[in-house]
């Protein structure tokens, strides 16, 4: 299923509202992961990027890319949506870094181009992982790393569509997770733990760590309502995969 055109239309339509609501939180300080804005200094997922060639796979308004460019990385921000890229360009400041329009499942880069490919609810949430992960592996240099944060299957399986919140009741079939309809033909993607392992290993990547970010009680979720409010302190809401290309 080709979700690229519909996903591009969706993000072009919602980009302004999304950035208005979320940019103050995402861009508050550098290197904040996921729905709970947990610092990378606490999770130790990305490491030192100074002098490294880095691709952000679904950069949105470039909050992460801006931060890593300021740390001395040679960053390229890629996004499917021209509206998101326009937001990134207007917020860029100094230093400058390139922005490229493209899809995670069809990366417009040569093999062995990057030391690090990463995303935080970016391309690996909005492209079929069976296509996007091999593309990320292809553009990585030997020894390069793929690091990415996505929703946990627990979070999706407990999402109450009618109520619009995550609860303590299983609602969706775990083994039925794959494409998730986002309206107007747009699709996001969710895999089981086993399917993520198979996709990553099938692309020739070595799994170094699986971090399950755990916010402290009282940490707000900037994107979803949960019942109880401390849901993600008790069960994993996100999966932060750390892998490398041998």
From TrEMBL:
Residue ranges constituting the Methyltransferase type domain according to the UniProt record: 55-148
Keywords recorded for this protein, A-Z: Methyltransferase, Transferase
Parts of the chain that traverse the membrane: none
Pfam families: Methyltransf_11
Keyword Transferase: yes
GO molecular function, one term: methyltransferase activity
This protein's record includes keyword Nucleotidyltransferase: no
BP terms from Gene Ontology: methylation
InterPro entries per UniProt: Methyltransf_11 (IPR013216), SAM-dependent_MTases_sf (IPR029063)
Name of this chain's protein: Class I SAM-dependent methyltransferase
Provenance organism: Streptomyces cylindrosporus
Native organism taxonomy: Bacteria, Bacillati, Actinomycetota, Actinomycetes, Kitasatosporales
């Amino acid at each position: 299923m080709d979700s690229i055109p519909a996903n591009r239309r969706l993000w072009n339509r919602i980009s302004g509202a999304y950035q208005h609501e979320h940019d103050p939180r995402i861009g508050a300080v550098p290197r904040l992961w996921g729905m709970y804005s947990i610092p990378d200094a606490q999770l130790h997922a990305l490491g030192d990027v100074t002098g490294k060639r880095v691709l952000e796979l679904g950069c949105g308004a470039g909050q992460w890319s801006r931060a890593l460019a300021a740390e001395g990385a040679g960053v390229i921000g890629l996004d499917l949506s021209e509206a998101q890229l326009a937001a990134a360009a207007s917020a860029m400041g100094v230093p400058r870094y390139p922005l490229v329009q493209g899809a995670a499942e069809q990366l417009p880069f040569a093999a062995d181009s990057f030391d690090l490919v990463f995303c935080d609810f970016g391309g690996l949430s909005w492209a079929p992982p069976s296509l996007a992960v091999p593309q990320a592996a292809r553009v990585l240099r030997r020894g390069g790393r793929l690091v990415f944060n996505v929703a946990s299957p627990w979070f999706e399986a407990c999402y109450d569509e009618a109520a619009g919140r995550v609860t303590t009741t299983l609602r969706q079939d775990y083994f039925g997770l794959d494409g998730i309809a986002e309206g107007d033909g747009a699709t996001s993607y969710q895999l089981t733990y086993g399917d993520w392992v198979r996709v990553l290993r099938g692309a020739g990547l070595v799994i170094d760590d699986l971090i399950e970010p755990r916010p402290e009680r009282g940490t707000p979720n900037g994107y979803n309502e949960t019942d109880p409010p401390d849901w993600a302190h008790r069960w994993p809401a996100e999966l932060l995969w750390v892998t490398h290309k041998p």
